[in-house]
Amino acid sequence: MDREPPHTIRVVVADDHDLTRAEIASLLDHSEGISIVGEAANGAEAIHVTLATHADVVLLDVLMPVLDGVAATRQLLQAHDRSTLAGGTAPRPAVVMLTDRGADEYVYESLRDGARGFVSKNARPAELALAVRTAADDSRLLWPAETVRLIASLTPDRGGRPDIARARSGLSTGDAIVVVGVGRGDDDEQIARNLGIGVDEVQRRIRSLLLMLALRDRTQLVVFAYESGLLTPKGVRAP
Fold first, then answer.
1. CB atoms < 10 A from the CB of 44, how many?
2. pTM of the complete model
3. pLDDT-derived band of residue 3, with 50, 70 and 90 as boundaries?
């Protein structure tokens, strides 16, 4: 019996610098299990190409003409949500920001809006491929240590805001432990050990939390962990 071929991750690369875009696209197109299905020179083009090709992952440069990567992230995911409500069945594209030094605040804003993670434009080929593969797997956090560091350093504590306070008060003790674990960058196995439950149950609880808190993915759950005050920048659970 023939095996079903593995899923190929369909990728769009968006960067206004032609050489940078071409180099990243070429590197990824030669990576096993990854196929470049489109390129774009600005954020508006990136949205159109990503939706038209049903891409699994889109790499967005933070700063681009017409529409920057932050605005493109927001508009792309909103467009996908509208399509889904209208009966569309295409998977939600995972957004990965292409970054340069000094872009932390832009990257943070994109993570709050639903980007799955970020990767340096100067990353090695293996790191670029790993970023794409991890982003395509919604059960994993991209670069946990770096992602948590960035979010922890830039997220304001909004635990006293009525909507955030209500959301936090609605969490069970077990739910709060899961949120804290994700917020620290722990993997599912570590969270499972902390709670004394199975990994499958941890993953079920995370899916339930995302639905209850109206969050897109684990990255946004990290943001919530700090916004709600369950974690502080020092990694200590708030009282």
1. 17
2. 0.91
3. very low
Identify the pLDDT of residue 236: 52
Q: Is 119 helix (H, G, I), strand (E, B) or coil?
A: strand
Separation CA 117–CA 107 (nearest Å) = 8
Residue 135 CA to residue 90 CA, distance in Å, equals: 16
- Taking a C-beta distance cutoff of 8 angstroms, is the pair 219, 231 a contact? no
Q: Which helix (H) or strand (E) holds 138?
A: none
Which CATH number is associated with domain 161-227? 1.10.10.10
Q: How many CA atoms lie within 13 A of 216 on its CB side?
A: 24
Q: With respect to CATH, is domain 9-137 assigned 3.60.15.10? A: no
Integer angstrom CA distances of residue 84 from 18, 78, 88, 99, 148: 32, 10, 4, 29, 30
Q: What six digits make up the tokens of 235? A: 């990694």
Closest CA to 20 of 119, 144, 146: 119
The letter for the amino acid at 159 is G
Classify residue 87 as left (phi > 0), alpha (psi -120 to 50) or beta. Answer: left
Q: Which amino acid is at 192?
A: A
